[in-house]
């Protein structure tokens, strides 16, 4: 592989789900601007069109957003690599651009400008160093991956060479200099993402599968339930049983299946849990990753089923952290801080 390889990073919103991966693309928004491919291929044209389409946009954000659009349309080349950290499932998706750009008028996700991608691999976040995850946590919609390009590319090509770097390439352009509020929002979001990564990595490295079940039972007790772990064999997919009364005779009874995995849980695993439920019983499935679309559709159609993914599980830990046993607080050492809560532009 040539050492002039370029690696791009692209961010998209949580609401797009798995559509970019299934559809073979990454995309950018700003739908009020219409077909971006019709604009003159220079940054000033993008700035003028952006200011006209979004008159309430902060002045400092205009060169940043216009720069992202310009790079997306005119600097990406066929064969360049892309790293897309998906917010919906906490996966890092790596692919190559095909060189085909499309405009999708009325895109339901409001990301009408697409670059088609051949996806090469999809990896849980915990398979990368925290430093690499920090780099792809850039506040920009579109950015170059510089310092950790080799770490990402080696996932899809073991023989990859480190992309060439220059001092100029390591410097942000003036258009990438964020205004204070944008940078503050980005820093807050990065702090939250770093903490979630830290917690999930600790759970993965410090607990076995059965110990994760013990931790889940303890967490439910912190939430006010009486909980017990089922025997290791013959549980029929149920790892923890929880209830509000001490003896466990009164409904609701919550049957919990725990998967200590950062990958994607398929629907058949969730079906197994549903098959154990009787009258007055509810199913709770917990993992540290995400769920396949079929499993999520099943949750929407089953009132007695709840799926908790990695991001939601970390939130439960935050909410009940003060009640955790000392051994668990020692395993996941956290302290409370306050970060700005500015609205996203």
Describe this entry's structure for a reader.
Helix 2 crosses helix 3 and helix 8 packs parallel to helix 9. Strands 2-5-4-3-1-6 form a six-stranded mixed β-sheet. Strands 7-8-9-11-13 form a five-stranded mixed β-sheet, with helices on both faces. With 345 residues, it is α/β, with parallel strands linked by helices. 33% of the residues lie in helices and 21% in strands. It has two domains: 172 residues, ph1033 like fold, CATH 3.10.590; 125 residues, Trna Endonuclease, Chain: A, domain 1, CATH 3.40.1350.10.
Short description:
By secondary structure, this protein is of the alpha/beta class. The chain is built from eleven helices and 13 strands.
Q: Write out the strand line-up for the largest beta sheet, numbering strands in chain order.
A: 2-5-4-3-1-6
Secondary-structure element series: EHEHHEEEHEHHHEEEEHEEHEHH
Distance between the termini: 39 Å
Give the CATH class of the largest domain: Alpha Beta
Q: What would CATH call the architecture of the largest domain?
A: Roll
Mean pLDDT, to the nearest integer, reads: 89
Which regions have little confidence, pLDDT < 50, spanning 5+ residues?
none
Number of discrete helical segments: 11
Rounded radius of gyration (Å) = 23 Å
% residues in beta strands:
15-25%
Structural class: alpha/beta
Main sheet characteristics: 6 strands, mixed
**Overall strand count:** 13
């Amino acid at each position: 592989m040539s050492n002039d390889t370029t690696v791009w990073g692209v961010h998209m919103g949580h609401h797009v789900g798995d559509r970019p991966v299934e559809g073979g693309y990454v995309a950018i928004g700003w739908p009020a601007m219409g077909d971006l491919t019709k604009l003159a291929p220079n940054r000033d044209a993008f700035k003028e069109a952006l200011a006209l389409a979004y008159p309430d946009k902060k002045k400092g954000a205009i060169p940043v957003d216009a720069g992202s659009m310009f790079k997306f349309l005119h600097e990406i080349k066929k064969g360049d690599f892309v790293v897309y950290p998906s917010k919906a499932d906490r996966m890092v998706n790596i692919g190559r651009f095909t060189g085909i750009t499309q405009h999708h008028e009325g895109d339901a996700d409001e990301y009408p400008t697409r670059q088609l991608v051949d996806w090469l691999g999809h990896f849980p976040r915990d398979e990368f160093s925290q430093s690499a995850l920090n780099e792809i946590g850039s506040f920009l919609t579109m950015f170059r991956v510089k310092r950790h390009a080799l770490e990402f590319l080696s996932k899809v090509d073991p023989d990859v060479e480190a992309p060439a770097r220059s001092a100029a390439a390591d410097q942000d352009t003036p258009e990438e200099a964020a205004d204070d509020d944008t940078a503050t929002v980005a820093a807050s979001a990065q702090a939250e993402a770093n903490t979630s990564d830290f917690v999930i990595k600790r759970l993965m490295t410090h607990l076995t599968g059965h110990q994760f079940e013990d931790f889940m039972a303890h967490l439910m007790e912190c939430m006010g339930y009486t909980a017990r772990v089922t025997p290791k064999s013959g549980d029929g997919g149920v790892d923890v049983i929880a209830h509000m009364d001490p003896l466990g005779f009164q409904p609701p009874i919550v049957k919990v299946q725990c998967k200590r995995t950062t990958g994607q849980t398929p629907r058949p695993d969730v079906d197994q849990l549903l098959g154990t439920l009787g009258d007055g019983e509810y199913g709770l499935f917990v993992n540290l990753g995400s769920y396949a679309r079929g499993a999520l559709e099943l949750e929407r159609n089953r009132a007695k089923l709840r799926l908790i993914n990695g991001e939601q599980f970390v939130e439960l830990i935050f909410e009940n952290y003060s009640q955790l046993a000392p051994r668990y607080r020692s395993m996941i050492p956290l302290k409370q801080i306050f970060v700005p809560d500015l609205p996203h532009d």
